[in-house]
Automatic annotation (TrEMBL):
Protein name as annotated: NADH-quinone oxidoreductase subunit C/D
Any one Pfam family match given in the protein's UniProt record, by short name: Complex1_30kDa
Membrane topology according to the record: Peripheral membrane protein
Location, primary (coarse class): membrane
Record keywords: Cell membrane, Membrane, Multifunctional enzyme, NAD
GO molecular function: NAD binding; NADH dehydrogenase (ubiquinone) activity; oxidoreductase activity, acting on NAD(P)H; quinone binding
Keyword hit for Magnesium: no
Gene it is expressed from: nuoC
Highest rank taxon of the organism: Bacteria
Compartments reported by the entry: Cell inner membrane
Length: 524
């Protein structure tokens, strides 16, 4: 998708964005991309929106207004709640203050971090970056910024925690939070009143690193985002580069990529089913899923050479052709896995304790799922048809027969069952393709130094837990001017407060188990 922007004036921006949602039904905020466009334009944001009825997508570009040393843009927090953490991310890395946002704190970096590292003029030298070695200072307050009648920037302090609030920290530790995530939770006895996520414990600055890399070098970073969706993440990055360059791939490449993506999805869902059970203290189901996941990894490893890190897709195709036994091994895997899926239900999914722990827990209706951009199985559990493979097909997903799995339960049990049923659909897709892989090139040769034409593009795929997208701004050089990745987990985590208010502490663990977020993907 080559981006052709709609531009509004600063003073009418909020009103026009509200019209896009209400009058034109652009009710899904896909992402907000902060960018330093250079000395002539300055700082600003790109908003990608989708109409969930027609699946039309548009992009809006809004430049920040400079007031003294500050940059401001009106917040869209009250139009799309998904903007909550998205705007905080832009503020964290670019220093743009969003007017009217009720919680303008850093999101990934420490509260005492100095500067905004994704600005082009940020000093990256070791002498300038003297990182604090002490514990991060805590505060019970946050800020809201607005303009007064004189056009001056005014700060209003809001209290996060009252003097009588009892605050429990879940994390940052790995068990039951799927990585180093910290959920600062206000509780009243056993009842949850607020959940404040703290991110960035393994933030590695990948988007900043990519600006200093050539395009082939950037590919290695995607596999480190989420080892359960390494194929999907790299697919999005090579996809946006190939679209920008106008690369035409062979049918063989399309077939193999589609099969590999679905093998990776099964890998992801198997670990999801296992860890969901383990989070609820059911060890046997975890062992069953890990046992069968080994079979999936064995099949992929024969071709890719990797198990966790799948360095397989490249710009123009694949790193290598499939293994001579790949077709045979994949067919044997599909035959083996089909009866095993029922076994996961027999051991855990249909257990009375599982139903009691997951049914009605973490409820999120259709309107809220869209408003909070709860993509993937989490949103499809409320009946939202949000699968990128159906709405914005790529490779062969519009050439094979398969069903988009949705539900109406809107709860954690429905999310669990959607993962179960999606595995059957992945097997259906693979079985339609595996005997029909055409002959042809597995790699379309590219120039030794890859340069992408000037412009801005967006490409997204359906990852294991939702939409994963990549924005690319090229200035015609061998390195990207700006790369922005839409992680699957950011909006999922941002919905925790809505999902868990009024529920019990144990429900936080159960809901987290059903959401399927992975912290390296979230933190980047």
């Amino acid at each position: 998708m080559k981006l052709e922007y709609t531009v509004f004036s600063f003073d009418t921006f909020k009103e026009e964005m509200t019209k896009l949602r209400d009058a034109k039904h652009f009710d899904y905020l896909v992402t907000i991309i902060g960018e330093d466009f250079g000395s002539e334009e300055g700082l600003g944001c790109i908003y990608i929106l989708e109409n969930t009825e027609t699946h039309e997508r548009i992009s809006v570009k809004q430049m920040a207004r400079q007031i003294g040393n500050d940059y401001v843009i009106p917040s869209v927090y009250y139009i799309w709640r998904a903007a909550d953490l998205m705007e905080r991310e832009v503020f964290d890395f670019f220093g743009i203050k969003f007017l009217g946002h009720p919680d303008m704190r850093r999101l990934f970096l420490r509260n005492d971090f100095v500067g905004y590292p994704l600005r082009k003029d940020y000093d990256m030298s070791p002498e300038h970056n003297q990182f604090p070695m002490t514990d991060e200072p805590e505060t019970d307050w946050t800020s809201e910024w607005n303009l007064n009648d004189l056009g001056e920037l005014v700060e209003t302090k809001h209290r996060l925690f009252g003097p009588d609030d009892y605050v429990v920290n879940f994390g940052p530790n790995h068990p039951s939070t799927h990585g180093v995530l910290r959920l600062q939770t206000v509780v009243n006895d056993e009842t949850i009143e607020h959940v404040y996520p703290h991110l960035g414990y393994i933030h590695r600055g990948m988007e900043k690193m990519m600006e200093a890399m050539t395009y082939p070098q950037t590919l290695a970073l995607t596999d480190r985002l989420n080892y359960l969706c390494a194929m999907h993440h790299r697919h999005a990055l090579v996809g946006v580069i190939e679209e920008a360059m106008g690369v035409e791939l062979s049918d063989r490449i399309h077939y193999i990529r589609t099969i590999m993506d679905e093998l990776q999805r099964i890998d992801n869902h198997l670990l999801f089913l296992g860890t969901c059970a383990q989070d609820l203290s059911a060890l046997t189901a975890f062992l069953y899923c890990m046992r069968d996941r080994e079979h999936v990894l064995n099949v992929m490893e024969e071709t890719t050479g990797g198990r966790l890190i799948q360095n397989y897709y490249r710009i123009g195709g694949l790193q290598a052709d499939i293994d001579p036994h790949f077709v045979e091994n994949v067919k044997a895997l599909c035959k083996y896995l089909r009866p095993m899926i029922q076994e996961y239900l027999d051991v855990f999914g249909d257990n009375v304790i599982t139903h009691q722990r997951l049914e009605g827990v973490g409820y999120m209706n259709l309107a809220d799922s869209i408003n909070y951009a709860l993509t993937g199985p989490a949103g499809r559990a409320a009946g939202w048809h949000n699968d990128v493979r159906k709405n914005h097909p790529y490779d062969l997903y519009d050439k094979v027969e398969w069903k988009e799995i949705t539900g109406t339960g809107c709860d954690s049990m429905t999310r669990y069952m959607i993962h179960i049923n999606e595995m059957y659909q992945s097997l259906n897709i693979i079985e339609q393709l595996i005997d029909n892989i055409p002959e042809g090139e597995f790699y379309i040769k590219q120039k030794p130094i890859i340069k992408v034409p000037e412009g801005q593009w967006w490409f997204s795929v359906e990852g294991g837990a939702g939409e994963f997208g990549v924005y690319l701004d090229s200035r015609g050089d061998k390195s990207p001017y700006r790369v922005k990745m839409r992680p699957m987990g950011l909006t999922l985590t941002g919905a925790f407060d809505k999902m868990l208010r009024g529920e019990k502490i144990a429900d936080l663990i159960a809901t987290g188990a059903s959401i399927d977020f992975v912290i390296p993907d979230l933190d980047r």
